[in-house]
Fold these 4 entries.
Entry 1:
Amino acid sequence: MRARRLIATASVAALAVLSLAACGRSAPSVAAYVGDTRYSVDRVDEIYDDAQAQYADAVRTQGAQTGATPAPEELRSAVTRQDVLNLLIAVDLGKRLADEQGVQVPDEVSPEQLQAQLQMPATAEYAKLWGEWVDISAALQQKLPPADLSDDAIMAVYHAIAKTGAIKSGLSVAQVREAFGEGGFVRSATALSSALREEAEKVDASINPKYGPIGVPSVVSTGQSLVFYSLPYINHDGPVTDISTPEAPETTGAVAP
């Protein structure tokens, strides 16, 4: 399971850090390798299950206050295991990059500040990871020089946001450039994505093929609300689209979380 680079098509609490075992980098119980760190499938599931449980409890509590009984589908958060893995990898790569760049990451954004628009209780590990990542990403974006925007790069950001429904889909490049104006947030987001891609390559990051392409967790303010979306890992020209085919596992032994 050796990917040349992490990619994306468009898309907290304590991190479960595991030392590498002699079985190599293809253990089916490992969700991702980032340098000499690995994140277990069990850890991803733990954060995901906690998010779903706490979300459901919050919905039931709110329903009880109004006398409403939530339907089963209303008790399911939109959070996915892919979202969880995206955050785990981004936080790891972001910390490595901050250390290399000598960037001090202040503790400014709390889960409580994000919970309403993230639609996730602040006590959930997923919300805590988001709070940590917002601080890391903001500090890095202040340090990194803004990227020059190619059409491919600006459309990668646009398509990622359009998937959330926060902006109309089907716009042309010219229309997107007009909508984004000077595109300061696009430039900084592109610079961060490119820097994380380079860091992923540097540490030989790889993911379990059971998950989809990895994206950079991103957030932008519309002035009235926050939009959470997943940005592709891109280079200076546009989305990264190549990845090596993972080798078949040589061992199926379980890895302790």
Entry 2:
Amino acid sequence: MGEIVLAAKITHVPTMLLSEQPGKLQGCRQQAIDGQREIMRRAREAGADTVIVLDTHWLVNAGYHINSNSRFKGCFTSHEFPHFIQNLEYDYRGNPELGDAIAAKATEKGVFTLSHQVDTLDLEYGTLVPMHFMEPGDMPIVSIAGWCTVHSIEASRKLGEAITEAVKESDAKVLLLASGSLSHKIWENDLYEANNGTFTISREFNRQVDLRVLELWQNGEIDTFLKMLPEYAEYCCGEGGMHDTAMLFGALGWDKYTGKGELIGEYFPSSGTGQANVVFPVQN
């Protein structure tokens, strides 16, 4: 029987890649990179052999979608930030059977979900950036669209439930990653440079709500957080509508989850947004 062995909400900011390269940003995101490597270390220690990524850079406008290719290989340049992410080569295994099973379980719950094995369906950088640093090696990856434009939080919760149910009926030991920011109000273009945009947040209100959310997670007050999730996503411009977060907590048990989040590294602002790596222990 399979299980989710570790879950986390993680950042995927492109400056993590620039942090590795010579130049003025070298080293700027080292703590975030180290945090993701620590998450993978813990996952491997817990027996993880598969990664599921809830990717808020994969935009979908109808239904829910899962990239279940048997192999992901390519060279990625971001359309959004071509000056940040260029020629990022990748080669990972996939798990079509698990992707199909998640889609079937979700659809049974009334949440129409399609699992795709299409060679030309590429991965988005919400998956590629953390995988670059976590180095899954032979661990297969399943990527699920998390930028859901016309979807409800309730439906995303049910998709999270479907993930857990499908994993339990498999033989996979899963690291589940919700890849997206906390608040996500990117600086207006004409204000970016004037406000040192790479290293600042665009709204003090957003920072304060982010810090309160992290406090709730670390105190185990998940029920309180879930009550504010729809408004948090709306008023603080949560990335992808924070559907990745709804899926994550749906998989963990929603308001019945009693674990406490652990901040790995530091909360940090990036291009106006709020970012963090937070681990959630799994209660099987």
Entry 3:
Amino acid sequence: MSYKLIALDMDGTLFNEKKEISVRNRVAIREARENGKNVVIATGRPLIGIRKVLDELDLNTNEDYVIAFNGALVQNAKTGEVIYKSVLTLNDYKFLYEVSKDLDVHIQALTESYVTTPVLNPFTQVEADLNGIEIIKSDVNTFPETETIVKVMFVDEKEKLDKVISLLSDEVKSKYTIVRSSAIFLEFLNLEANKGVGVNAVAVAKNISSHEVICVGDAGNDIAMINYAGLGVAMGNAYDEVKRIADYVTDTNEEDGVAKVIEKFMLKKVI
């Protein structure tokens, strides 16, 4: 199979544990592009939060796209033009706020440019620091209706979120795409938003079929795109549920697992 596009998760996949991109990963991405392959970042983060990464990898041209907010927005990497959008409403935020109060868990919402929360907490600070975005403390019930809410998140200690997940009602589960993007982040997205839908939007824009796509990830929010891909790849450090549904398991994010996928399946190198 000749693969034409590879979609890469960032945390736990492209990044090592120091949040760095290894030399081998950078070289493999550059060589793939030099050979006419498409490389796209698929992340839970906003576009504004990964600009430095795009610049580092030269994935910042008019020909490049970013799958942001776990697929809720797909944007041109240079201009920010949206080619796919599936977001939430203020009523969704208010509904989930009431759920969060019942479950005694912190809540936050992401707009296209900042994070908002009714109660300042260390987990929202982690979100802001990861993406280099502002925190705006705001009452949910007076939040402006004109603002776009891309996703809502329950954020708290791992043990608290483990419990919260087990207590979510069938109503909540039926209304949203729900993904655990990290130990402290539980995300609620529009039902039509996930990384698989996002990768498909890029593939359609590039006139590429799903069987010509590789998707690589490590966590629950990567499962949809791994299922979508012609070749779905789990990192060696991936959650067990991700490995179970993957077509192939590469090495860990500390062992250049991304580079090894590109070299083996796109560049056809003997490794």
Entry 4:
Amino acid sequence: MRILSGMRPTGRLHIGHLSVLENWVRLQEENECFYFISDWHALTTGYDNTAELQENVRAMLLDWLGAGLDPERSTIFVQSHVKEHAELHLLFSMFTPLSWLERVPTYKDQIQQLGKEGKDVSTYGFLGYPLLMAADILIYLADGVPVGEDQLPHLEFCREVARRFNYLYKTSLFPEPQALLAKVAMLPGIDGRKMSKSYHNDIPMSAAPEEVWERVRLMVTDPARIHKTDPGHPEVCLVHRYHEIYNGEEVEETRVSCRGGRIGCVPCKKRLAEKINAFLEPVRERRARWAARPELVDEILAAGAAKARATAGRTMAMVREAMGV
């Protein structure tokens, strides 16, 4: 099966991204995988501030390699290094009804949300990003796309574009890619909200042990517990939620000790920080090894772009023939 997925380089990845990357690593074992850093998609909302874009691209690649993506098994590249994405997006735009783009469920919601944040995204780039996403997927004739449930409308839009192209030009060139829904743990931020760099409530994948402890130390806990000997309520404690994910072998003991007032919040947090650090240590080590060899990182991107361009070029030759251009 051919797999395609990507991420926008908007800053350091956090531990909430690890479950997604772990799924990518599993998929590369038995499939032909294309994973790309979608720098053009980052421009749809960050077009006015690109000073850190190249730095973010580099940091994201190192995070991917740290998580275990293997450039020998997966094609890893930067979206803008394969100009065929833009060409296919342009050709798709010639026959895609405007109403299709306007009805994408996330479009109006994000317009309103970003507008409240003072961001003007009333641009074609933002309106058309689902079509660029469709071009990203279809140019590799991908069979499967790892997505979360919130991305399902975008994938259905992609299938509609594939069907319309095949119908208009009397071909069966484009497959209708299927969603590969993985059980991805939704990890809240240290304040209980969605984990996000913009909220300053994240734990970066590349965080040093000291930074991990500082983030865990700030986690919200049971508001009803005043003294460490007070009975706790782990079901409402964010720290306990993290213990369930990173400290499964001790979670029951921690739960019982919390309810019985036998462990305070600070020792509980320190134990959690130890477990998170143990989990992240191999990720940090792999990342550091790659970061120490920048020339190899450059080679990965160059080789990945060359392979991606070759595949995308074959698709575009068939697209041009079908469309007569």
